[in-house]
Design goal:
By secondary structure, the chain is of the alpha+beta class. It has a domain of about 100 residues: Alpha-D-Glucose-1,6-Bisphosphate, Chain A, domain 4 (2-Layer Sandwich), CATH 3.30.530. The protein is built from two helices and seven strands; from the N terminus they run E-H-E-E-E-E-E-E-H. Strands 1-7-6-5-4-3-2 form a seven-stranded antiparallel beta sheet, covered by helices on one side. The two termini are about 30 Å apart.
């Protein structure tokens, strides 16, 4: 399952990167991330987080705990061009067992009007798949856009 979301903001990328490069701040704006605790670095020196995802489906709630590792973090802009950040988080459980893939990719680009954020959540398992779940996720993503814009000091049209 892949879920894509985007956001346009009037601020430059520097005003957004701190909100997307550290999973510890996601609970402030992303309702699906119920809890995010920084765990320090993994054996390769990459930051890791313990995450609890939670989604409500009517009177029911589903939750999932996982360990996420920031596997990519780079400003890919060339000299003289707007900032272009790429941040990728991937599931990295420390137990040595095989787990379903979870990958969150974030592209943050400077554009003439400010910034454009494009996010992709890829889930390779079967637990969260289904029309009702996908609809709940899409609704939460829409609400999360509004919360993030409020946090960076913008109002929506």
């Amino acid at each position: 399952m892949d879920i894509n979301a985007d956001l346009n903001a009037a601020c430059p990328p520097a005003g957004l990167v701190a909100w997307v490069d550290d999973l510890s701040v996601y609970p402030q704006w992303m309702g699906l991330v119920h809890r995010a605790e920084a765990l320090g670095d993994d054996s390769l020196g990459r930051p890791t987080w313990s995450i609890e995802l939670r989604a409500r489906l009517g009177p029911f709630a589903r939750s999932k705990r996982l360990t996420m590792v920031r596997t990519e973090y780079a400003n890919t802009a060339e000299a003289g061009h707007a900032e272009n950040w790429r941040v990728v988080f991937e599931r990295g459980e420390p137990d040595g067992r095989k787990h379903s893939v979870w990958r969150l990719s974030v592209q943050l680009a400077g554009v003439s009007t400010g910034s454009r954020v494009e996010m992709n959540l890829h889930y390779g398992g079967g637990m969260w798949v289904g029309g009702l779940v996908e609809r709940a996720l899409e609704d939460e993503i829409a609400a999360s856009r509004e919360r993030l814009l409020t946090l960076i000091g913008e109002t929506t049209p």
